[in-house]
Amino acid sequence: MPNPRANRVAERIHEIVASLVTNRLKDPRLELVTVTDVRVTGDLQHATVFYTAYGDERKLRDAGRALNRAKGNIRSHVGRQLGLRLTPTIEFTADALPETARSLEDALAAARHRDAEIAKSAEGAAPAGDADPYKKPRDVEEGEAADEASADGDDASDGDALESGEAFEASFESSENDQAEGVDEA
């Protein structure tokens, strides 16, 4: 479970360091530096400050050197403004999030390009089987229903089926009568 006090201290350090980088530090290598995140250990003894710099790898490396050079000045300002008994040590780390986002964007662009190629090749293609492979129920007319029933051997005019149904009902009624008489005798 995250420590709420460590989260509050991390947010405050983020505000202080971002303000120092943009307003107080006069190093030209820090002009395009953005503080992205701060993480503090549970005992509040160590803070890791994540940053990004607009530009290429060389500018990011130069920004890291400038931040490490000003680390003591930044830590003393953080200590004065936090009011903690012990000021946390500060470590600056280049944030890998922009590179990860860039690689994800490249992968998504490649996938979009492949999808466009597939859609272009599928424009003139016809389906291999039926255009609609799912069978739909069809409406059966009365004349067709009688024809299908006679083809199956289920002719409604056949008297044998009717007689067997009547015989079943008669035997069912007689068994009910026998049971009812047995209950009355007891």
From TrEMBL:
Subcellular location: Cytoplasm
GO molecular function ontology, one term from the record: ribosomal small subunit binding
GO terms classed as biological process: maturation of SSU-rRNA
Main location (coarse class): cytoplasm
Keywords for the protein's UniProt record, in alphabetical order: Cytoplasm, Ribosome biogenesis
InterPro entries in UniProt: KH_dom-like_a/b, RbfA, RbfA_dom_sf, Ribosome-bd_factorA_CS
Low complexity bias (residue ranges): 121-131, 164-174
Annotated Acidic residues bias: 141-163, 175-186
Cellular component terms (Gene Ontology): cytosol
SUPFAM superfamilies per the UniProt record, alphabetical: Ribosome-binding factor A, RbfA
Gene3D superfamilies found in the cross-reference section: 3.30.300.20
Start and end residues of each stretch annotated as Disordered: 118-186
Assembly behavior: Monomer. Binds 30S ribosomal subunits, but not 50S ribosomal subunits or 70S ribosomes.
PANTHER family: RIBOSOME-BINDING FACTOR A, CHLOROPLASTIC-RELATED (PTHR33515:SF1)
Similarity remark: Belongs to the RbfA family.
Its job: One of several proteins that assist in the late maturation steps of the functional core of the 30S ribosomal subunit. Associates with free 30S ribosomal subunits (but not with 30S subunits that are part of 70S ribosomes or polysomes). Required for efficient processing of 16S rRNA. May interact with the 5'-terminal helix region of 16S rRNA.
Name recorded for this polypeptide: Ribosome-binding factor A
